[in-house]
Amino acid sequence: MVMKLVLLLIICLLCLCLCLTAEASTPLEYLVKPNCQSQCGNVVIPFPFGIGESCYLNEWYSVNCSNTSGAAKPFLNPTKLNLELLNVSLEYQTVTVYSPIASYDQQKGSSELQTSINLDQSPFLFSTLDNIFVVLGCGHAKLMEHEKIWAGCTSINCSDSFPDQGCYGINCCQTTIPTIDSYYLSTYSVKFTLDDEGNNHSTSTHAFLVDRDWFSRNFTELEDVSVKYAALSLLWMIKEGDNADSSCNGSNYYSLSIGSYVRSSCGCPPRYEGNPYLHDGCDHVVKECANCLKTCDYRYIIDNQSYHIEYYCITKDRLSRPLILGFSIGGGSLLLLLGSFGLYKVVKKKKEIRLKKRFFKRNGGLLLEQQISSDKVAVEKTKIFTSKELEKATDNFNLDRILGQGGQGTVYKGMLTDGRIVAVKKSKIVDESQIEHFINEIVILSQISHRNVVGLLGCCLETEVPLLVYEFISNGTLFQHIHNQDSDFPLSWKMRLQIAIEVAGALAYLHSACSIPIYHRDIKSTNILLDDKHRAKVSDFGTSRSISIEQTHLTTLVHGTFGYLDPEYFQSSQFTEKSDVYSFGVVLVELLTGQKPICSTRSQEEKSLATHFILSLQESRLFDILDAGVVKEGEKEEIMALAYLAYQCLNLSGRKRPTMKEITMELEHIRMSLPPLKVEQNFEENACIEMEIIGPLDSTSSFRRSCLNYPKASSSDEQPLLFNAL
What we know:
It is found in: Membrane. The chain is α+β, with helices and mostly antiparallel strands.
């Protein structure tokens, strides 16, 4: 944050330096009369020129902004001259206009003498300083004023090609106009002379007066014979009849006699710039003087037959003022930034506190505090974490800390300040209508104390979505160990059986040993974690529900995972403890076969592992689908007993499935290689299984009924929970 502040300060100081060193320019609105148009197209039209009534000094300075050609173009004095205007200079009192090019066709016998545009009685004169005389084509031409020849030019070795290398005498020549007697022409004419050698390679010759700068930039444009105009520089002046002195509006007034003309002009006082022809038009200090602490002086610099004024400070401390100003503004800006930053932090902190309180209340924090305050055990076991604690624990929920992502949220690995490694689950959504129920479950789950259930350590409710903190289990999921077996640590038969016993015991504890039964609702191998001793831990109670005794849970939205989903629950939306039993049966089949619950490579009917398993039992090919390690290490009687226990768990009718307590007891008997338990008959002789038929993703899953004939027990009153077929 400090680096950002320093960077911002540097940027401010750079901007300040740029502002202090940038060239001053007079705003356009200060160059024209009030409420007058300041430019036409990209040409600025300063007073005494103007667009519209009352915006110009007199009719000679009127400008018409025309849009007939699709782009705005200004035309000078449309009633008498009507010349396209290219530029207006107040400093040099010049305008640049497009003027017609004189052409002479030697073969057609055109007139040898052609006159220029008529500037009679106007305040405009042809400038001899800014213009040059050019001849294009074959022959000779003279620039004349009345009978006096001012300049001449001859092009030699004529050809039809355009002189691409420039105008140096071959098919094109140029010459300057002497300024010994005068630097203007009131009028001029062009006189063409035939080529003495009669070399008529070119059909016509062109001669014209042209602005020297424009000609050097646009020489190649003249190759097009259809071009009939070239830029011409004209001098302009305030004539005596225009009350020139009063036109200066208090600015400096200059008057110069030029032959029969008196050229009057206005100028801004030293150190100021702007438009001297407007009232208070010279109120902008020139940039060179703006930084002077004392006097600003000036001198005239003559360059290429023109002159300009150069300003300079007469003291050596010319940089003191900008430096002092820069440091003052910089220091003030720094204080302003620091003050603004401090205020921003205070406002942001208060906003965060208000937001956290709102989230805490919305997520049921007040209800949770109320419930645990009356229970000492709940107070000890249910910790309410702050968002800062969990942000620090997870390195601000760094993506590198993600342990897994699912439909309910994302799980991050974290370390608390006391050194404990935890798993922090960040939910995706929160259902405000279920907040009270959610808080009740937090209290219940935090009090669960079973070695095979992942412990809920606490929660954080002052974030947008609730955060749940669980103990961290380091050895991955059962799914990973089954389907991505490490050759160094494969799951042995005894380990598989032990995991099944531990998961069954945990579910039996949740279903019957808790004060209120808890249904998991999403039992699957990815929700069974293994610690470093391969001890099973049931996790992810994101969809679990606590149910009052003798009640079932009816929901409008089916929760669970395809391949593990109870068909009875899928059809009725009524979840019971036997729905967890069905899902556990699929996990048993996974342990036996090492296959995934859904497999796209099997036939349409057997994509579901449960269906594939049942059909294999029916067709007496169970051992064909078992995991090689299971067949190698397990006793045949134990394998068959576990297979038929899984078969019972997958029964179509939930009430005919064994309870998790009965399953746990039977698994213990299988591990000790004892004969099957004989319990009160709970199953029909012909037990039927509904097989889930997995269709395409865009179709609805269907179910098919399958029945097995069990051998009868030795007693008519008793029937084993499991039958030893072999």
